[in-house]
Amino acid sequence: MNYELKLEQDWLWIGLPGELDHFQAEGIRQAVKEKMQERYVKYVVFDFSRTNLMDSSGIGLIAGRYRELAARGGQVYVSNVSENMKKVLTMSGLYRIVTPWEQVIVEDSMNGVRI
Amino acid sequence: MSNTNEMLVEFEAVGENESFARVVIAAFVTRLNPTLEELGDIKVAVSEAVTNAIIHGYEEKGGKIRITARLKENELTVQIEDWGKGIPDVEKAMEPLFTTKPEEERSGMGFSFMEAFTDELLVESKPGEGTRVTMKKVMGVQDGSNN
């Protein structure tokens, strides 16, 4: 299973592959770099709905996008994270720098704001 | 069914083989009836060691990686070996977040992951000769139906 990228305004949605390892992370990093040259991106969503394995290369990929976007006042979100993947994200400390996308939707519907 | 088993596989140190290595180890431990979580853990641990061999041991110039695995009762011992440049300071390399390749967005968590996802981790390395990672993990003891 491969990854998918979608651009919408200053948002980039990344549908992650089934297994996010070093090999996959390299491919995604390159593709994301090209998309970000094409358009000014401020927000990135990593969608884990198809992902059931991630190693530390995936952590590097997400932390790298965070560094890049934080510098321009942007943000990184993770979405559809399974219990298994939650374990890896928590262990790595990544939850300190990324926001679960589902949480944003709930908060925004409470505030009546739509993104 | 005997209580021991062994296997050895050697392959090229290229990124495409990271998933191959995970499939191999998963297939080898199937007879232990591991939980999905145990299976995920060992796949990640092996993936980390293989990735290290590819990008650090051989610095992506290629070489051979050998995986040796042994089952004894419910304990898996797996070794991942390369004959690459080796690690000058293993202790330093094993510190969380330590990386020699920050520009490649390496998180420096490879060894931490191996440690967290297995029961035992041993790293032996000699500069100029290579690296051998040994991990042990007990699996499939939860359902008691091992026959």
Would you kindly provide a brief summary of this structure?
Chain A is an alpha/beta fold and about 120 residues long. Helix content of chain A is about 45%, strand content about 25%. Chain B has a five-stranded antiparallel beta sheet, covered by helices on one side.
Segments of chain A where pLDDT lies below 50 for 5+ residues? none
The value of Rg of chain B in angstroms is 15 Å
Number of H/I helices of chain B:
4
- Give the oligomeric state: heterodimer
Largest sheet of chain B: 5 strands, antiparallel
Output mean pLDDT of chain B: 94
**Intertermini distance of chain B:** 7 Å
Task: Report strand % of chain B.
Answer: 25-35%
Counting DSSP E segments of at least 2 residues, the number of strands of chain A comes to: 7
In DSSP terms, counting alpha (H) and pi (I) runs of 4 or more, how many helices of chain A? 4
- Anisotropy-based shape of chain A: globular
What structural category characterises the helix and strand content of chain B?
alpha+beta
Strand content of chain A: 15-25%
Summarize the largest interface: chains and residue counts.
A-B, 21 and 25 residues
Element-by-element helix/strand order of chain A: EEEHEEHEHEH
Uncertain segments of chain B: none
